[in-house]
Specification:
This protein has helices at 3-26, 36-49, 69-81, 85-96, 99-110, 114-126, 128-132, 140-159, 163-179, 186-196, 200-225, 233-251, 255-269, 275-292, 294-310, 314-320, 332-337, 339-349, 351-377, 382-397, 409-422, and strands at residues 53-56, 59-62. By secondary structure, it is mostly helical. The chain folds into two domains: 3-230 and 354-433, no CATH class; 232-292, no CATH class. It has a two-stranded antiparallel sheet. Helix 2 (36-49) packs across helix 3 and helix 8 crosses helix 21 (409-422). The longest helix has 27 residues, at 351-377. The chain starts with a helix and ends in a 12-residue tail after the last helix. The relative contact order is 0.11.
Length: 434
């Protein structure tokens, strides 16, 4: 490994180990978040029963809400390092140390110079968003790695096509969706990119292999529950988050009352259905409601996208260091007071929250400006647009009322690469001209 790459990699690992030690000593409950048990339970059932199930014996049922990618990772962690959550975090520490290497390699594939590669590696080493989720039993660290690898392999496939590389790229294109179903439609973007880069045959093969595995899992769910869905979590998200958000714009009711009304409507129509069938019905109901209110849906989408982009994530660090209680409802006041009055409230009553988030916000603002400049400077390079389109895809598909900084993690390394290219010295040629 080059010395220039060794140091940021060592820094990335050291920061993660230091954070892990602190969490172990002072806030071990932070490792387990509300979603964590929904991944741990099917992982334990994989080890105990050899099947992807939820619940506990004798009340076991096929798991269709979660996909198997992250539970398999948890099960592997248990097998290698022992059956404890610390084993999962330990493996994630190693994954996090790979981000500088992946950022370096990505810039290299894009034709960036040595300075740009070093900058991307250092930024990804201490990026606060990539760092904090290392110590949670959540999909973020693994999924960010999968996205980075998928993009890197696809870029290489254009320049150095080969059958082994095509197969590996196709598998990663599919596997990323098994870690988080939010990436279900990502292979279409990769196909369009490959087609535009005159690799149409490779794009078709990638699409076929990716969705062959996806459809295989959908068939498994159909066989087990009668529902041909990749993940039934989309039903809950569609009705109780996206549609509820749209209805809140329409009716001006409280968030809780809208969700409760939708829950009653679902229960009245779902009598006699199993859980998977009920969630599939919820998906149809939610989709119908969204289509019936297009203007409010557009408002909800734009506000959700802003939630993904502008939340600095500083409050999550304060939670980790026991300086802020989650669920305090501070962010809810933003919609009640408006931006300027909300900032005044933060400064008056939550000054430390304001200062931490303001500092984080400056960093992410710097990344956004630099990445947009990098995109503009290299706008004639189609490889650059792949990174932008994938980032845009995640912003739009994650743009719900639940959106916050966590939903930026999958494409954070892409933003870092773009921003590094934007900070390339002017006396160096842009990668368009190489």
């Amino acid at each position: 490994m080059k010395r220039e790459l060794f140091l940021p990699t060592l820094l990335a690992l050291s920061l993660r180990v230091a954070l892990f030690i602190y969490i172990l000593l002072y806030n071990p409950s932070f490792m387990i978040q509300p979603d964590s048990p929904t991944y741990i339970n099917p992982a334990e059932n994989l080890l105990e029963h050899g099947a992807f199930l939820k619940g506990s014996h004798p009340d076991l049922a096929p798991e269709t809400v979660r996909t198997p990618g992250y539970p398999v990772f948890i099960a592997l962690s248990y097998l290698l390092l022992g059956r404890r959550v610390e084993s999962v975090i330990a493996l994630q520490l190693l994954l996090g140390a790979l981000f500088p290497i992946l950022a370096w390699k990505m810039v290299e594939e894009l034709g960036g110079g040595e300075r740009v590669k070093r900058l991307a590696a250092w930024l990804s080493a201490f990026d606060p968003l990539l760092l904090i989720y290392t110590v949670n039993v959540l999909t973020e660290e693994l999924y960010a790695l999968m996205i980075a690898l998928t993009v890197l392999l696809t870029l290489r496939l254009v320049k150095r096509p080969s059958l082994p590389l095509l197969l590996i790229s196709s598998l990663f294109s599919s596997f990323q969706a098994f870690v988080r179903p939010v990436g279900l439609y990502l292979p279409f973007i990769l196909f369009l990119y490959l087609a535009l880069r005159r690799r149409f045959k490779e794009g078709v093969i990638l699409l076929l292999i990716s969705y062959a595995l996806v459809f295989g899992w959908m068939y498994r769910n159909y066989r087990e529950t009668g529902v041909f869905e990749f993940s039934t979590i989309s039903g809950a998200n569609m009705l109780f988050y996206r549609a509820a958000y749209v209805l809140q714009f329409e009716t001006k009711e409280s968030w809780v009352s809208v969700q409760e009304r939708l829950r009653r409507e679902l229960e009245s129509q779902a009598q006699g259905l199993n859980e998977a069938e009920k969630l599939t019905l919820a998906k149809r109901m939610g989709f119908k409601l969204i289509l019936s209110h297009p203007l409010s849906a557009l408002k909800a989408l734009s506000r959700g996208a802003l939630g993904v982009l502008i939340d600095p994530g500083g409050s999550y660090y304060l939670v980790a260091f026991k300086a802020y209680k989650p669920g305090s409802g501070i962010l809810n006041r933003l919609y009640e007071l408006g931006f300027l009055r909300f900032i005044a409230l933060l400064w008056r009553d939550y000054r430390y929250v304001f200062l931490v988030n303001f500092s984080f916000g400056l960093y992410f603002l710097f990344l956004y400006i630099a990445s947009l400049w990098g995109l503009w400077r290299n706008r004639f390079n189609p490889d650059i647009w792949l990174l932008f389109l994938i980032s845009l895809y995640f912003v739009l598909i994650s743009a719900g009322p639940e959106a916050y900084s966590r939903f930026r993690v999958p494409f954070e390394i892409l933003i870092i690469v773009l921003s590094s290219l934007g900070l390339e010295r002017r006396d160096q040629p842009s990668i368009d001209s190489l």
